[in-house]
Amino acid sequence: MQPYLSVRGLQAGYGRAQVLFDISFDVGPGEVVTLLGRNGMGRSTTIKCLFGMMPSLGGDIEVNGLRTRGLPSHRIARQGLALVPEGRQIFSELTVEENLRATARNDGSGAGGRAWTLDRIYDFFPRLRERRSNLGWQLSGGEQQMLAIGRALMTNPRLLVLDEATEGLAPVIREDIWRTLAELKREGLGQIVIDKNVGRLLHLADRHVVIEKGRVVWQGDSEALRAQPDIVHQYLGV
């Protein structure tokens, strides 16, 4: 099966400092893949390159068969990629509903053959329905994260990318987010997930990509990672 996302030999840097060295991995249709590693090892830089928010120095990126390296972010998003960024970055002066409508794109159904609409988002996140008229800054951190995910889903993506989706949230809200990601996986939505909770990622993800100092040092499925706890201790520091 052809991967939905293919990254080959990706290189990137800031000024003269190169920070990514030949990053390569695939994400198949409906597959959940993690990018694991300590802070500052290149995970978020990889995501920025995928979305055209940072120019790459070399390598190839293909999304749904289209080479996207060098394309502007809006054209990449049209290929079915959606980002839930670190820090959520919702529009604080817009209402919940305005945030959701701002990114709505209905030029086809989403993963699993069902399009994401306002009503479907509200059914998925009932708390957002209750808060639909509240401004972004009036929401709790957990509500803002639900809104950030809902906003991304309103683009009807084929691949959802989540950068530190549970960072800074209360434990009960983290559990809600993990349940949300599991449900999205059951519906066939592919995901790339960056998070520090390896235990939950082992249950959620199909495969894992470990990045250390801008290089892929290990790839494998959850069973293989469980069988190699030294990988977790050496590269993740837990």
Task: Describe the overall structure.
This protein is of the alpha/beta class and 238 residues long. It has a single domain (5-236), classed as 3-Layer(aba) Sandwich (Rossmann fold). 34% of the residues lie in helices and 26% in strands. It is built from ten helices and ten strands. It has a six-stranded mixed β-sheet with strand order 6-7-8-3-9-10, with helices on both faces. A hairpin with a 2-residue loop joins strand 1 and strand 2 (17-27). Helix 3 runs parallel beside helix 6 (141-153). The mean pLDDT is 91.
Looking at this protein, list some descriptive labels.
single chain, 238 residues, alpha/beta, Rossmann fold, six-stranded mixed beta sheet, four-stranded antiparallel beta sheet, 10 helices, globular
CATH class: Alpha Beta
Portion in beta strands: 25-35%
**Approximately how much helix is present in the residues?**
25-40%
CATH topology: Rossmann fold
Any idea what the radius of gyration is? Answer: 17 Å
CATH superfamily: P-loop containing nucleotide triphosphate hydrolases
Average of pLDDT = 91
- Main beta sheet, described? 6 strands, mixed
Q: Cα distance, first to last residue?
A: 34 Å
* Total separate domains: 1
| Spans of at least 5 consecutive residues with low confidence | none
Element order: H for helix, E for strand = EEEHEEHEHHHHEHEHEEHH
What spatial form do the alpha-carbon principal axes imply?
globular
CATH architecture: 3-Layer(aba) Sandwich
- Side-by-side strand order of the widest sheet: 6-7-8-3-9-10
